[in-house]
Amino acid sequence: MAYILNEKISGLEPYETIQGDFRIRLDANESFIEIPESTKNEMLEGIAELSLNRYPDPRARRVCSLFASYYNVDPDCVSAFNGSDELLFLISTCFLMKGEKAVFLAPDFSMYRFYSELGEARTAIMQKNSDASFTAEDVISFVNAERARLLIFSNPCNPTGVGIERQEVIKIIEGCPDCLVAVDEAYMEFWDQSVIDLVCNYDNLMVLKTCSKAFRMAGIRCGFCVANKTLTDALLAVKSPYNVNSMTQTAAAAILSHPGELDAAIAHIKSSAASLKQELSDMAAQFPDKLSVRDTCANFSVIEMPGDSAKRMYEALKKEGILVRCFGSFLRVTAGSDEENAEFIRAFENNLF
Ligand code: PMP
């Protein structure tokens, strides 16, 4: 006899980003803007003063309260995690009883389904329209027909970039009263249809926030949940006690203490995303048989290309040291600095022919 891994994990590969020496990485929707030097120094000074032999604050109170004041929400409705990935794992595995069902939309962020399947949840997938749109009514009938107890979706959506308006999200929350609705607003700083202010009005709403995009903290690993007190307390009860380490708490607190810097970085990313989209749209108007550009409301552009040309473009860019993401006939390109965008546009155009 020998120990054999169970079938749900035996075929899994560790998560790996694409390795290599890339000049320009526009593949992961990170911010292209670094933390300002003065704030970095504050972070480092704070970390130098920590008693690293002691456990961190299990509730991450300081960082939760800074986050709460940035969004003008009640700090008792905020909980902190080791990236929003940890939060997604907890929601998918702890908020369903054995045999209960989760609903996801497709396309959407792939980790929702991955974590739920690891937790052995039953899952049902609602396919979006071919232009990645969907209506609240579609979702409500699907969730209710499946008697789902959990729905997670991103708004705006990664990878499609499509957002649904706040009023539609409210319809979904109200139309699925027996289902926990987790709205992943990872990219909402780049749009304006958040429901974060509504968490206390509903007993089935969670808003998930990452610090990895607009807040420029992908390397720090910090994410938050905003939800009513009952849901927040449940999350605090199921998470591991010291899930956010003291260096992350200190670093994130230093960054969140400068709301003006956060606002400036967001404005800069939005303007970079708008000019990238504009340049691509101009190219699409010139060469309509070669590419079209989707309307996105996040920090990335989505380009559709005929046949296998998206895949070929992806490979050609990679050879030139430029990394984007390819999903079938689509390329997803994160907005970079002006120089990175210009390099990408030049390489893209050269490889079109
Ligand atoms: N949700 C969405 C929609 C994302 O795109 C990502 C990152 N790609 C995450 C969550 C995970 O974010 P974090 O870095 O906080 O784990």
Element string (H = helix, E = strand):
HEHHEHEHEHEHEEEHHHEEHEEEH
Q: How is the largest sheet built, in terms of strand order?
A: 2-8-7-6-5-3-4
Q: Please summarize the sheet with the most strands.
A: 7 strands, mixed
Strand % is 15-25%
Helix content: 25-40%
**Which residues form runs of ≥5 with pLDDT under 50?**
none
Supply the helix-strand structural class: alpha/beta
In total, the number of strands is 13
Q: Report, as a whole number of angstroms, the end-to-end distance.
A: 59 Å
Number of helical regions: 12
Report the mean per-residue pLDDT as an integer.
97
Radius of gyration: 21 Å
Which ions, cofactors or small ligands are bound in this entry?
4'-deoxy-4'-aminopyridoxal-5'-phosphate
Topology of this structure?
Blueprint: H1 7-10, E1 24-25, H2 37-48, H3 61-71, E2 78-81, H4 83-94, E3 101-106, H5 111-118, E4 122-127, H6 136-145, E5 150-154, H7 166-175, E6 180-184, E7 205-210, E8 223-227, H8 229-238, H9 246-256, H10 259-286, E9 292-293, E10 300-304, H11 309-319, E11 322-323, E12 325-327, E13 330-334, H12 338-350
Parallel strand pairs: 1-11, 3-4, 3-5, 5-6, 6-7
Antiparallel strand pairs: 2-8, 7-8, 9-10, 10-13, 12-13
Helix pairs in contact: 2-9, 3-9, 4-5, 6-7, 10-12
Bound molecules: 4'-deoxy-4'-aminopyridoxal-5'-phosphate.
General description of the model:
- This protein has twelve helices and 13 strands.
- The chain has 353 residues and is of the alpha/beta class.
- A seven-stranded mixed beta sheet has the order 2-8-7-6-5-3-4, with helices on both faces. A four-stranded antiparallel beta sheet has the order 9-10-13-12, covered by helices on one side.
- It starts with 6 loop residues before the first helix and ends with a helix.
- Bound molecules: 4'-deoxy-4'-aminopyridoxal-5'-phosphate.
- 4'-deoxy-4'-aminopyridoxal-5'-phosphate (PMP) binds next to helix 4.
- The site of 4'-deoxy-4'-aminopyridoxal-5'-phosphate has 13 residues, from helix 4.
